[in-house]
Write a structure and sequence with these properties.
The structure is a homodimer.
Chain A lengths: L6 H4 L3 E5 L9 H12 L3 E5 L5 E2 L2 E4 L11 E4 L3 H14 L3 E4 L9 H17 L2 E3 L5 E4 L3 E2 L13 E8 L2 H15 L3 E6 L8 H10 L6 E6 L7 H10 L3 E6 L4 H10 L7 H10 L2 E2 L4 H14 L15 E6 L2 H11 L5 E2 L4 H9 L3 H6 L6 E2 L6 H12 L6 E5 L11 H12 L3 E4 L7 H8 L5 E2 L2 H21 L7
Parallel strand pairs in A: 1-2, 1-5, 2-4, 5-6, 6-7, 10-11, 10-12, 12-13, 13-14, 15-16, 15-17, 15-18, 18-19, 19-20
Antiparallel strand pairs in A: 3-4, 8-9, 8-11
Helix pairs in contact in A: 3-4, 6-7, 10-17, 11-17, 14-15, 15-16
Chain lengths: ~475, ~475
Amino acid sequence: MVKMDLEKLFKPKSMAVVGISKKNPLSPGRIVLLKNEFEMNVKVYGIYPTGGDIEGVQLYENLEKLPEIPDLLVIAVGPDDTLGYIQNCADLNIPAAVIIGGGFAEIGIKGKKRQDKLEKVAFDNNIAVLGPNCLGVYAPPLVDTIFLPTERITRPPKGSVALISQSGGVLVDQFFVKFNERNIGVSTAVSIGNRAVVDEVMLLDYFSKVDPDTSNIAFYLEGFKEGRAREFLRLARESEDTVIVFFGGKTREGKVATLSHTASLAGDFKIMYSALRQNMVILPHSERELLTSLKVYDVLSHRKNPFGDNVITYGNVAIVSVSGGHGVLAADMLRTYGLNRVDFNKEEKNQMKALMNPVAREIASFNNPIDLTGSVLDTDIENIIRYLSDIERIECIILLLLPYPPNISFQIGRRIANIISTKRKPVVCFVPYVPKYSLIIESLELAYIPVFHSIKEAVQAVSALKQRTRIDSVKKGNVYWD
Amino acid sequence: MVKMDLEKLFKPKSMAVVGISKKNPLSPGRIVLLKNEFEMNVKVYGIYPTGGDIEGVQLYENLEKLPEIPDLLVIAVGPDDTLGYIQNCADLNIPAAVIIGGGFAEIGIKGKKRQDKLEKVAFDNNIAVLGPNCLGVYAPPLVDTIFLPTERITRPPKGSVALISQSGGVLVDQFFVKFNERNIGVSTAVSIGNRAVVDEVMLLDYFSKVDPDTSNIAFYLEGFKEGRAREFLRLARESEDTVIVFFGGKTREGKVATLSHTASLAGDFKIMYSALRQNMVILPHSERELLTSLKVYDVLSHRKNPFGDNVITYGNVAIVSVSGGHGVLAADMLRTYGLNRVDFNKEEKNQMKALMNPVAREIASFNNPIDLTGSVLDTDIENIIRYLSDIERIECIILLLLPYPPNISFQIGRRIANIISTKRKPVVCFVPYVPKYSLIIESLELAYIPVFHSIKEAVQAVSALKQRTRIDSVKKGNVYWD
């Protein structure tokens, strides 16, 4: 297959937009033109048959009148006119295009014929076409072709995760909103729509091998593009990045929808899952597990990965809480996620007891889960975390950090972060998701310690770290995947 | 067993607090005294051996010096002094007490002996003793004996759910924080600690039969109190309220913790679960399912229940979204939760098509899930919801309401609420949990339409409604539980 220059989609020097309405401020073309002009760094040109301006931004009569040949053309017109513009790209050597509109394979035979024509022009001329029927590209700080008004969208922070979604809605909602809520960073986001030309395989190739800002590649797919699964598997196995796929349309009920949606066929998921797993693709069971995994992998990708070279091989954890019930609930989930309770011997229990303040010492419990009780002081939590960090057979600490006890100070997050950043023992924290505790949450996350807002997510995070160790080992040829 | 007057715990005319420190502003007794004095409606008296005042609040030298015999005594002293105060309750005819401190059965043999003495005095004298080793009672607007500083706690809204928790941490965190986040209302919350005297059975009895403000009773337990399971089952089956139990310590890993925690023995969960189910107790599989169920049951309990007499018997749903991917993900979950997709015939599809604006009509999909697309207008959503509400075989509509399409207005929540409130067809909504969309969320919730912030919760909510129908039927003797 031809290698297209996908970099022109994500890092264009300049772009042009066709399909701007002077009457309707909410027309997709107009929204894309103005958000790129006012909010993004790319040089952007608007095309309008009679020229003039829109909200003070100059418009050009046609592509030939532009002061330069743009790297990227965003096409927001009807399906037949779209074909004309793709021909223009070929004629003018515009190397990339985003087609926002529908009316192609997703509407049936008539549309399929249009899409065939589109594909022929694009492949013959090496034009990296995204879509049709898509939101296109969000590649901060350069480009944003999402035709939905920015003020309605929640933009995620900048980070290591490339997002590729067959559903634009899933991209801006399930991913953007929840990434922002959880502080997970995005490098580039791509809505592939009908994926007539640029597909999941080309994007996996690009983000694995070309894009220096991406270390984790996450897909929402409703099945692979026909004939492309094998190549996807090969690239996933070769990739140094973590590859994660979340599938929609896994059930008969869901398949009814995918057929009507972006013209994909839901494959045989059981066989596919097994092949994907063998090729080191991570397959979360739920949206929540997907998000939890991406959050820890994003942290690991950071230059200042707080856990250094410490990895979780066996899943041996210690649980520390100030609430007995929280410890119980976390312990209840360990086995489901392939993790184990470390046992403490009598000497260790006595040593921990000796590290505590005299009141809490008498009522605290040093089984695992450890319950430091509501009589805890900051220094008790610090001492115990420091002590556990030095026990080699503990691979990870789950710290259920409830700030309700009266003597826990607002410094606690900072104090814990300092210990983790020097000891480098993996620690995942649970802190209640309440605005007044953002002081604690932020002091941990500023030091790249991942904080979660449910017990289940904290446990899932350790499981995700363990899974990553195994995948890295296999990719380096050290052990076999079981 | 003796019937104690639990109302004195939750609706005392007056209360007294012992164990106040003049030196330490964070001492439990002092926190309880001042929060009740400044924040709650109960008349509260502080006891201090030398009298005087604390932060301007008068203190009394002992219980005998109080201007009246209080209904409730909050005891925040060491375990041996606690026994003395319980004897005082007997001598002075104080009918109820909350024991905050530990040092009883949870610490072993020595403590168990103390607890035996405590139980004898309490049962002999009919004193409703809560604890020891607990947070006590939060019964707004009257009483709050939670000794954690109020400014650290998130208080849930007022509503129909009585909460009874064996773990204080689970009560104030898993319940309070997440109830507040999800707008679920609490009538009374109880932390039972060692449940030496007042236990889950007595509380189930009280909230079922006595308390007029409670319609749903939720428990966090790590096993039943010894010998009390049978009575619990009987009361649960008789209760007109919905009874929900969430268990901790279900696994071997979790049991390690419960033994050290509040001196309970985790039972054989498999047998217990089956007995509970047969007696119409709802057993959520996860914290999230627990919260989702409580949210819908809280709504149903409201005088203005928006769904009227409409019930979900078979679980036949229609899914409406403006994003294909969201529809797929929701449909994928139906079977797991015992729900079914309704199929539309050609005529119905054409009728729905005719109700849409000309642009969206051409690209929308009227299979189930219905995808109205990003070209949707408010009126399209209104027309489709109204249309589906009149189809009898649809028992519930799952509306995945993404406000990203440019033509959806801020009125949309209000418009949908008005339709539901007149049609009374059960509708559960998903709206992204983003501050800027609280305008839409609030307009629905003001009309008691439950709004969820994940697709999974919306689907779980329908399942919870279906479960409630079955339980109500069995309790009324109509059908058998399968």
